[in-house]
Write a structure and sequence with these properties.
The strands form five sheets. The chain has a five-stranded antiparallel beta sheet. Strands 1-2 form a two-stranded antiparallel sheet. Strands 6-7 form a two-stranded antiparallel sheet. The protein has one helix at 35-40, and strands spanning 13-16, 19-22, 44-47, 53-57, 68-75, 80-81, 91-92, 98-99, 102-107, 122-126, 131-135, 137-142, 148-153. Strand 3 and strand 4 (53-57) form a beta hairpin. It has one domain (13-153). By secondary structure, it is mainly beta.
Length: 154
């Protein structure tokens, strides 16, 4: 058996699903869970790099009694979709485990696709005035469960 890296005074060595690990406490602010608690529900300990360790849980919602850590999550499918004819204003979601929201964008006016592609707005040819109008994109930022396959919890 290979000893795992890490461990601190008072930690216990545990044989988990994927091998041995130190049963250290999760260090996300407010957490009262341990690496063992995470392993018991099918998760793995993940070091966020700046705000502590969390449980990387394979599911779309937090395990019962646990809380989502900020916006740590991963979605299946494409990283971006939709948008206008210019390739702008696309919706997006993290497809690798990251602290990012899912952003769904929609035009805030009636979209008529024709015209230029030079601004960050949907360019709409206005008839009968024969000039361009700009409709901005409205965004919905959320941590929706639709297509979410992993979530960071504590």
């Amino acid at each position: 058996m290979t000893w795992p890296d890490g461990g601190a005074a008072g930690d216990t060595l545990i044989m988990g699903v994927t091998g041995p690990y130190w049963n250290s406490p999760l260090t996300w602010a407010g957490s009262v869970r341990t690496a063992y608690d995470c392993d018991l529900i099918g998760g793995t300990v993940y070091d966020t790099g700046t705000t502590g360790t969390i449980c990387r849980y394979p599911g779309s919602t937090p395990y019962t009694g646990w809380t989502q850590a900020a916006s740590w999550q991963r979605y299946s499918g494409d990283a971006s979709w939709g948008g206008d004819a210019c390739g702008l204003n696309k919706s997006s979601a993290p497809t690798s485990f990251a602290n990012q929201y899912r952003v769904t964008k929609a035009n805030s006016g009636t979209l008529i696709t024709s015209g230029g592609c030079s601004s960050s707005y949907w360019n709409v040819w206005s008839i009968p005035n024969n000039n361009y109008s700009h409709y901005g994109a409205s965004s919905t930022v959320s941590n929706t469960t639709t297509d979410r396959v992993e979530i960071g919890i504590y």
